[in-house]
């Protein structure tokens, strides 16, 4: 008989619904990313970019990205988003239920905790303060959309100092270094 892991226990007891889709204010806009056409090709291209692939380890093939996006869209654990700034898509984001993710093995995740994965797709758009400007609006929108959510987590690669500085400037605090399946990460938390 297979022992029940901490993550399996949280998945069983996680009663929160799908992660919300945040409603952002100008100049920001978020929408669900589609698993075909322009969205698929954009997400795939951005994840191939060296500045993203170095830390996300998702420089996957187009069919694998299509499958990942389709799986997210059919499920209720993750919402893949394209976030636009002044009408231009600039960030790929995944909003996920932390209690139903591997990160729940690393901290006491509550059913309504949300997690974020963020990637600024174009190298030319990095170092412009986009993430630090977006994060307070994004976390406010997520807290508003899920009144039971009290924490939002990020788990950047510990080597990604640029992202960590942006996340801190955007309202997240470092909690602990944690080992995830594909990286040593810094668990970062934003409280309601």
Could you characterize the architecture of this molecule?
The chain has 192 residues and is of the alpha+beta class. Strands 1-2-3-4-5-7-6 form a 7-stranded mixed sheet, with helices on both faces. It is globular, with a radius of gyration of 16 Å. The N and C termini lie far apart (40 Å). The N terminus is likely disordered. InterPro entries: Acyl_CoA_acyltransferase. This is GNAT family N-acetyltransferase. Pfam families: Acetyltransf_8. It comes from Lentzea roselyniae.
Q: What portion of residues is helical? A: 25-40%
Describe the sheet with the most strands.
7 strands, mixed
The DSSP helix count reads 6
Number of strands: 7
């Amino acid at each position: 008989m297979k022992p029940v892991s901490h993550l399996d226990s949280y998945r069983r007891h996680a009663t929160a619904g799908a992660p919300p889709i945040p409603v952002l204010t100008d100049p920001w806009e978020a929408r669900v990313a589609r698993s075909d056409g322009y969205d698929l090709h954009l997400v795939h291209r951005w994840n191939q970019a060296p500045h993203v692939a170095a830390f996300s380890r998702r420089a996957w093939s187009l069919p694998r990205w299509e499958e990942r996006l389709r799986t997210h869209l059919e499920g209720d654990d993750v919402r893949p988003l394209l976030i636009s700034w002044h009408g231009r898509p600039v960030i790929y984001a995944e909003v996920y239920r932390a209690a139903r993710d591997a990160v729940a093995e690393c901290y006491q995740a509550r059913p309504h905790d949300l997690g974020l994965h963020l990637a600024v797709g174009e190298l030319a758009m990095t170092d412009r303060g986009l993430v630090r400007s977006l994060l307070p609006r994004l976390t406010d929108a997520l807290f508003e959309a899920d009144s039971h959510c009290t924490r939002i987590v990020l788990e950047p690669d510990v080597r990604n100092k640029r992202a960590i500085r942006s996340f801190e400037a955007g309202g997240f605090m470092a909690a602990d270094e944690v080992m995830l399946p594909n990286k040593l990460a810094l668990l970062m938390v934003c409280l309601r």
